[in-house]
Amino acid sequence: MSRGLDVEAVDVVCARLSLVTVVDLRAETRAFGRARLRELALDAARDVVLARGWGAVRMGAIATAIGISRQSLHGEFGTKDELGDALVLRETAAFLDGVAARLAEHPRDLAGGVADAVEFMLTATLDDPLLQTILTRAPVNGGDQSLLPLLTTRGEPLIEHAMDIVGRWVGEEWPAADPGDARLMVETVVRLAHSHLLTQARSPSESARDLALVACRCLRMPDPPR
Q1: DSSP letters for 94-151
Q2: SS3 178
Q3: Does residue 164 carry a pLDDT above 70?
Q4: Whose CB among 27, 78, 132, 218 lies 3.0–4.6 Å from 82's, allowing a Cys bridge?
Q5: In Å, what is the CA distance from 170 to each residue of 110, 148, 154, 190?
Q6: What pTM was computed for the model?
Q7: Is residue 208 scored above 70 in pLDDT?
Q8: In the chain, which ranges are continuous DSSP H helix?
Q9: Cβ distance 155 to 134 under 8 Å?
Q10: Rounded distance, CA 113 to CA 101, Å?
Q11: Dihedral of CA 209/213/219/221: which sign?
């Protein structure tokens, strides 16, 4: 009797799951296809920007490169500038996620977290001309300037976002820290890191160690070991 009830219950659950799975699978397939299309389009636009500059990006050529109609590409992104916005957003989001991930690897370790995050910030741009342009407003590959107006008018305020990320980490790990000291430390470290992006006079590891020392002194913590 119990076994029969169990079988019936399993059959009912399986029937319900099969119905839900069909609906969910269709939705997930559409979502995956759309996300994949966006990534392919952004990858294609990125390749053109790096090879010939933003001015050479054409919606029709991007659509052809990824195997869809120009109308479909416009339907997904809108205008060319909106495609550029999406590209900048993707690159900056990956960069900021990297900063947050480095900090998260150092719970209750101010010097280690700051040094790791700063070194990531400084090294991430070395082999990535597009990210370097987004972060520093320098022309792509030292020449093409066609992307700069887009960054000037629509670029994300990266310094504020980075300060938010570092500030949240400090607040979570050291909730008793003086708010004024924490604010000063976060702003100083992030702005100095950005200045090092503009003019990397020292190696990323050396700059990272220096800013870790600044962070510790701002929060009145012991100096990191040399």
Answers
A1: HHHHHHHHHHHTSTT-HHHHHHHHHHHHHHTTTT-HHHHHHHH-PPBTTTB-TTHHHH
A2: coil
A3: yes
A4: 78
A5: 8, 33, 29, 13
A6: 0.81
A7: yes
A8: 2-52, 59-66, 70-77, 80-104, 110-123, 129-136, 148-154, 158-173, 179-198, 204-218
A9: yes
A10: 10
A11: positive
* Neighbouring-strand partners of residue 45: none
Helices 158-173 and 110-123, packing angle to 10 deg: 160
Residue 110: Cβ within 10 Å count:
23
Bin 225: left if φ > 0, else alpha if -120 < ψ < 50, else beta: beta
- What pLDDT, on a 0 to 100 scale, did the predictor assign at position 1? 44
Q: Which residue has the higher pLDDT, 135 or 39?
A: 39
pLDDT at 211: 97
Asked if the model's pLDDT at residue 93 lies above 90, the reply is: yes
The two structure tokens encoding residue 110? 């101010």
Q: Give the tokens for residue 54.
A: 């933003």
Task: Write out the two tokens for 53.
Answer: 């500059």
Domains and CATH numbers, the chain: 1-78 (no CATH), 85-226 (1.10.357)
What residue has token string 């370097």?
A: 132
Between CA 41 and CA 27 the distance in angstroms is 21
Q: Given pLDDT bands bounded at 50, 70 and 90, which one contains residue 18?
A: low
Cα torsion through 51, 66, 82, 152, rounded to 10: -10
